[in-house]
Amino acid sequence: MTTNTHPTTRPRGDGAAALAFLTPSILTFLVFVLAPTVGVLILSFFDWNLLSDGTFAGLDNFKRLFTDERLLGVYGSTTYMALVILAVNVVLGLLLAVLLETRMPRWIRAFFRLSFLFPFVVSASAVALIWRFLLNKDLGLVNYLLGLTGLDRIDWLGSSTWAPISVIMVNSWKTIGFSILVYIAGLQSIPKQLREAAIVDGAGAWTRFWRITFPLLSPTIFFLVVINTINSFQIFAEPRVLTQGGPGDSSRTIVEYLYDRAFGDFDLGYASAIGITFALVLVVLTAIQFWFSRRWTHYQ
C-alpha cells in the first residue's frame, strides 16, 4: 500500500482571490494612512503657512518643541484626562459587564446593554453639544438637580478644576459602552464548566472572579487597555465643543493644540512636528503595554 507523500498544492486561483479581497484595505491604508503620514513627516521639516511657498527649516520645528512651555502644560492636561478615562473604561467597564452578566431577566439585560452602547454610536460632536447644554452653569439640568438637593451650582465648563472633569465624564459616558460590549464577549467565551466546578468546590464569588474570570479575561483587558489608551490620548471633539480647551489650557488636549497651531496660526510645519512626536509617544506607550503583557503572561 502506497501513500501520497506529495504536499497538497494550493489552487492557483487562491492567491489572486486573496489579493482581490485585500486590495480595498491595502489601497485604503496607502491613501488614508501611509501617504498622509509621509506627508506630515516631510512637512515637519518645512516652514509653511498655506499662503506662501514652504521653506526648508531643518530641525527648527523639532527644536521649538523643547522651548514651548505651553506644550508641556497641554501634555500634562492630556495625560491627566487620558489616564482617568482609561481607568473608567477598563475598571468600571469590567464591573458593569460583570453585573450585566449576572442572573436577571433577559429584557432587562438587553435594555441596559442598549443603553450603554447607544452613546458610543452617536457622533462625539452631537454628544458634546447635548452635554454642553446639560452642564450649563445657569440653565443646565445637572445644576438644576444639584439645586434640588441643596448643593451649590458648579461651573462645570468655566472652572479650571471642573472643566477637565467635565470632559472626562462626557467622553467616558460616550465610550464606556464599547468596553462593556467587549468585556461581555470575553465573559461569554469563558467555559461555564470552570465556574460550576469552582462552585462545587466551595469557591465564593470573589475567589471565582480572581482565580478564574480575571486570568481568562486578561487578553480582553489588555486589548481594551491598548485601544482605550490610544483613543483617550486622541480626544478632540469633547474638549473642543464643551470648553474650547479652556479655561486657559486646563482641558486642552494635544490634538486640539495641534489643530490650533495648524489652522489657527497656520503654522503647519510646527503642527506636523507636534503630530510626529505625539505619534512616537503613542507608539512607545503601546510598546510598553505589550512588554508588560508578555511579562504578566509569563508570570501567570
From TrEMBL:
Keyword Metal-binding set for record: no
Annotated ranges, domain ABC transmembrane type-1: 75-289
User: Which of UniProt's keywords are assigned here?
Assistant: Cell membrane, Membrane, Transmembrane, Transmembrane helix, Transport
GO process annotations (BP) = transmembrane transport
Membrane protein topology class: Multi-pass membrane protein
Gene3D superfamilies (alphabetical) = MetI-like (1.10.3720.10)
Q: Which residues cross the membrane?
A: 21-46, 80-100, 112-134, 162-185, 216-237, 268-292
* Localization per record: Cell membrane
Q: Which PROSITE patterns match?
A: ABC_TM1
Any one Gene Ontology cellular component term annotated for this protein: plasma membrane
Q: Which domain of life is it from?
A: Bacteria
Similarity annotation: Belongs to the binding-protein-dependent transport system permease family.
The protein depicted here goes by the name: Sugar ABC transporter permease
Q: What is the lineage of its organism?
A: Bacteria, Bacillati, Actinomycetota, Actinomycetes, Streptosporangiales
